[in-house]
Amino acid sequence: MKQRISILVAVMEIALVGVSAAFAGTVTATATVSAGNSGNLALSLPSNPSMSDTLDGTDQTATYTLPLSLNDVRGSGAGWNLTITSTAFTTGSHSLANTASTITSLTTACVTGGTCTNPTNAIAYPLTVPAAASAPTAVKLFDAAAGTGLGRFTITPTVSVAIPGNSYAGSYSSTVTIAAVSGP
Known about the structure:
The protein is mostly beta strands. It has one helix and twelve strands.
């Protein structure tokens, strides 16, 4: 009798395993993730920055910041860089030196509400911002290595402007051009 019960239990176990296997199956879930912003980098510039200084006969430095918004929603991990150039600060027929502007420091932050892959920057500061009367050659301001810099960021360079003690008083202006370029 014990042998019959053992055989009956073994047959029932095999039947249950067969039943549960008959109802198992697998599916493959897919998700399509598309590049945002038409597959391009997006760069937003701040309103016109300003600074002021009072001449006293000594060489001085005035500073301003450029809080930039950069979105890399391409999803490629190709990396990117920012370039900068400017015209010389001028007022009437007077100008500051072509090497007057220097980026002394730079901060980056992921925009709240998003997840970022922080950019790995290889640019050293201080960095002289090239200036000329027109069309100076741009230099890299920031460099996000491949596989970094994905997401939305605020990048804020601090620009120092050297003002010699023998400068002319006036309202000086400079045109600063910043571009976002694909690739480190």
